[in-house]
Amino acid sequence: MNKQQEIARFLSHPPDGEALEQFCDNDELLVWIDWREYEEDLIKWFNEHLAEADQIVCETKEIDKPRGVDIVLTSKEKSMTIPFADDATDRDSAIRAMQEMIAPNYQIRWFMESLGGDTLAFVLLPTAQWTELERQFGKEKVEFYFQPVTSDSVMFQIGMDEVFAKIDARAKERPGR
User: Fold this and answer.
1) Average pLDDT over residues 141-146
2) Which of 29, 54, 71, 123 is the most exposed place for a label (fewest CB within 10 A)?
3) Spatial separation of the C-alpha atoms in residues 142 and 109, rounded to whole Å
4) 69-74 and 106-111: which strand pairing?
5) Whether the bond into 104 is cis, omega within 30 of 0
6) What is the mean pLDDT of residues 68-94?
7) What are the C-alpha distances in Å from 69 to residues 40, 85, 148?
8) Residue 176: predicted pLDDT
9) Which residues are CB-neighbours of 127 under 8 A, at least 6 positions away?
10) Residue 177 vs residue 147, higher pLDDT
11) How far apart are CA 136 and CA 101, in angstroms?
12) Which of 81, 5, 10, 12 lies closest to 43, judged by CA?
């Protein structure tokens, strides 16, 4: 079963309990990122889900700022330095930058069932496959479970009060209620 079919199966009957655990154990589909990971490592993990020709080159350069490094991403078409704050690198900025580098051909989506943990799950698929899933199941349902990463997405740097508010809101909005 390919990744799109796995997600379609999930969206047809969103699992819970042991079935959700089995879905979450699918390392071929999900990219799990811990809040302590190095940003260049997460770029490598996303690259594992891209066609070889579409992979992003990640270069770390020492700089004279409190954060100590710049991370430069390069593809055949473009190059960018991840826009970190002067004092620290962070996973959110790295994931948003990776999304910018692979767009419009691919999309990274946050698997929202991982909300509230210190390790979050993401799925990277070709944009055409996400579009087909939205056509098949509805954009609202797909985005409820697989939220697109955008230029203003906050995933790891979200406050605990906001996490709990989102979890409560999701419980009330859950499709099929």
Assistant:
1) 96
2) 54
3) 10
4) unpaired
5) yes
6) 95
7) 11, 11, 28
8) 63
9) 103, 104, 105, 106, 107
10) 147
11) 27
12) 81
Strand ranges (E), 20-131? 30-34, 57-62, 69-74, 79-81, 106-111, 119-126
pLDDT of the residue at 16: 84
Joined together, the tokens standing for residue 85 give 């704050």
Report the DSSP pairing between strands 69-74 and 57-62.
Answer: antiparallel
Q: 64-72: long-range contacts (C-beta < 8 A, 24 or more apart)?
A: 71/39, 71/40, 71/43, 71/97
Instruction: Measure the CA–CA gap between 53 and 24, rounded to whole angstroms.
Output: 28
Helices (H) and strands (E) in the chain — how many of each? 7, 7
What letters, b where the CB count within 10 A reaches 16 and e where it falls short, cover 135-156? eebeeebbebbbbebeeebebb
Give the tokens for residue 66.
Answer: 């409190």
Q: Is 143 helix (H, G, I), strand (E, B) or coil?
A: helix
Output the CA–CA distances (angstroms, integers) from residue 108 to 30, 35, 50, 105, in the order listed. 10, 17, 11, 11
Dist CA 130 CA 127 (whole Å): 5
Task: With beta carbons less than 8 A apart as the criterion, state whether 12 and 176 touch.
Answer: no
